[in-house]
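Collaborator request, handled under Task 6.
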Amino acid sequence: MGLALMGKKAGMTQWFDGEGRAVGSTVVVVEPSVVVEVKEPDRHGYSAVKLGYEQTKEQRIPVPVRGQYAKASLAPRRHMYEARVRDLEGYSVGQEIGVEAFSEGDRVDVTGVSKGRGFAGTIKRHGFSSRPKSHGHKMIRRPGTAGPTGPRKVMKGKRMPGHFGAKRVTMRNIEVLKVDAERGLLVLRGSVPGHKKGLLKIRKNDA
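Structure tokens returned to the collaborator:
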């Protein structure tokens, strides 16, 4: 359980460490999230902070959600999410939490929706090898038989062609290389799921 913030993937770039080595990195734009509600164990059964992200027009969010922002006297946000925390001290309704909640060297878990690849074959989807491309081979990229003849059916979990990507993916234990509080930027080591401008949830790693 740890504080989580939402951001948008700006893209990838090079980051040079202290020894001059170029490291692949991802830049994330983290707009401050506002505390909509503080959930206490005595009342709600668990301790968490309900946050709103990205300002939007009131007519673009559902009516029940509007009431939550009206109750807290806050401008509506496009996204609402919860972050379970162990200690509620220091959190209050209306408080804005930005990228300064993270520090260089922190380890975070990043959750996003992977890029959608549409309908893909077994070579692209599962990394199968192709057949020989010599004379006489017609089914070069075909997966072959669907399984043994005994069960007379396709076994569950069989790796076959199908929808590839567009799934919720979490990458864990990613290092924070740089925190730019003035511009609201977070530089993470390596890649994260999703396309440019894709929505990400960044949570402090508990390990």
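The cover message to the collaborator said: "The mean pLDDT is 92. Residues 116-165 form one domain. Please let us know whether this matches your experimental observations."
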